[in-house]
Structure formats: C-alpha cells, structure tokens
Amino acid sequence: MTNVRIGIIGAGAVSDYHHVPGINIDPRAELVSICDPNEELLAQRQTEWGPTKTTTDYEELASDPDIDAVIIATPNYTHHPMALACIAAGKHVMCEKPLGLNRDESAEMYRAARDKGVRHMTAFTYRFAPAMRYVRHLVKSGALGELRHFRSQRFLDWPETSWGWRQYKNLAGAGDLFDMTIHRIDFAQDLMGPISSVCGAVARYAPRDKTPDGDACEPSEVDDWSSLIGQFGNGAVGVWEGSTLMKGYHNDGFGYEWAEVNGSEGSAAYQLTDPNNVMVGLAGEPMQKQPVPEEFLVIEGSPRDPHAGVPSTVFRYDLVYEFVSAIVEERDAVPGFDHGASAQAVADAVLESFDKRTWVDLETDLG
Description:
Elements: E1 4-9, H1 13-25, E2 29-35, H2 39-49, E3 53-55, H3 58-62, E4 69-72, H4 79-88, E5 92-95, H5 103-116, E6 120-122, H6 130-140, E7 147-155, H7 169-172, H8 176-192, E8 195-203, E9 225-232, E10 237-243, E11 256-263, E12 266-271, E13 277-282, E14 288-291, H9 311-314, H10 318-329, H11 337-356, E15 360-361
Parallel strand pairs: 1-2, 1-4, 2-3, 4-5, 5-6, 7-10
Antiparallel strand pairs: 7-11, 8-9, 8-15, 9-10, 11-12, 12-13, 13-14
Helix pairs in contact: 1-10, 4-5, 5-11, 6-8, 8-11
C-alpha cells in the first residue's frame, strides 16, 4: 500500500493542530473522511481542510471500505468503543492518549489490534521532539553510562474555569495525570525501561464550577496536580510532577517542561520550549546548551522541514509520518497501543497508590 486513505474521528483542535498538517505534508497520505457530532464544525473543516466525506456516526466511518486508517481524537471515554469498532472493520488506528479510561480498556484495545493484525499507534507526541530523540540516542548509545535517575516537570498556567467533559471521572478518567503526566510516563519508560513500582499523589485546587462564560456547572472531580516516584526494573529511580495551575508558566500556551536523565557518566535534558536544543553534561563538564545534531531534528524520511515553523509545534507532524510509514512498510508503529496501555497501567497505579497510601507494584502482562 502506497496511498493511505485516512479518516479522522474528532474534528477539534488536536486534529487541526497536529494530525491534518501531518497528513497534508505526507504524499503517501490522504484525508478522505471526517466524523464529528458537530455538523457546523464539519462544514467549517471542509472549508479549512478541503472537501471530504463527512458523517456524525463513527460506525459509518469505521465501516467505510474507502478508508484504510483512522485517527481518533475524541474525548477519553469514547476511545475504547471507537477503536474497537475500527479495528473490527480492519482499519489501522492511531488514537490519542489516554487510550482508555483505565489500563483494562487500553489493554483490550491493544489485544484487539494485535489479534486483528492491524497497525496501532498511541499519539504520544513528545517522543518526536528533536531534543527528546537525541536524549534517547545518548541513553541507548551508552554515552550517559549506567542509568540512575529520571525527572520530569510539566507546568501549565491554564484558566481555572470549567474543562467541560475533561473534569469528570466517568468521561476523562483523571485530570492532569491522564492528560499531561502520562506523556512523561511514556517517554520515561522509552528511555529507562519499564517502571516496576510507584508511589504517587494527586490533588485538586481549582473547583472549576464556572464555565468561561460565567455560568455555573458541576465542579471538577479530577486532579489538577499529580506527582509520582517510580522505581524502574533496571534499578533506576524517577520523579514526575505535573500541574495546570502553575502561575507564570503560560509561555504562549506551551507552558514549561523539563525532562532529564542522569547516568554514571553524564546527564542530558530536553525542554519543550526549546526542542531543537538540548542540555548535555558529559565527562565531568557542566550541563550546557547545544544544538540537536541535524540528523535528530526530524525522523528519517519525513518530508517535514525541521527549520520551518514553530519548533515546539512542528515536530508533532511526525506522528502521522510514523503511522503511515508503519502501514506502508507493514511493521509495528512506535509507540503502539502496548506502550499506551503500559503508561496507563502506571497512571492507574498512581491513583491506587494515593488511595491506599502505599507503594504499588506494576502488572506488566497485557494478555
């Protein structure tokens, strides 16, 4: 297959921001159908994205024989049924994180895709950041020596008004933990290996009982701060913290992120606000900023110009390139649903740990 016909379920900001630009720059990919319950938004997207089929019924899109692959960018509680419907119809699927509302839903999605033989991918965007790719190279090449520590901070300064569906457990599962920290759990495991046990905590400070228009609504049920300490199977340790209420960290919507690995021979760190540069300290030298080497600015083969656009935005387009490449090359996409389910198992364990006030060991078998 050299021409991959893609349908998108969910015509909101994430698709507009990440996925459609990625489709548009890949000559092997074509957007052929859009599904969203908002008919007005569908009409708007046909003007902005180009004419396509449209539907408000995801099952109609899933069964369309003219679609090869589906990108799911919808509220968390819909991921599980939508993905299973698309997989049953033989579609390759990329799904936004978190895959499901819990580890069990995510693992079921992975098993369904594996058993059906379709390509599956979790939209863990930050794995494609140039600095993160170079940090991974330093880790895997042994340049940092024996891995000892991982730490991550992800701070956002968001309004304290309603998040809509995102603030209710039955629709979102959790708040910052599932929305932001789960990304950092994923790339920590990619860098350091599986997490074996965690001790975690969550908190909620903003009631979010008013809409942006000032109307009353049911208050938030989910966390706006999350943190965990983790032990990796290789003996290394990690510390994560995330919050949407860090005043002064707006940074044009990008917030602040720092992710660092320390080894016996050196340290390296990535920053979202400066993804084309990396902090490195090797052979006793202090941590210093240096440009990411050219070969790590974009994944191999991607048509994206690594020197064009806003650096903190454009690396996200490589998500689609990896998904399409996996389909064309008949190989597993990375990160797959297995990676999504593994990260969700850790996030679930954070909630269990806080509820029980104890360390929780991780179950690694996805069945």
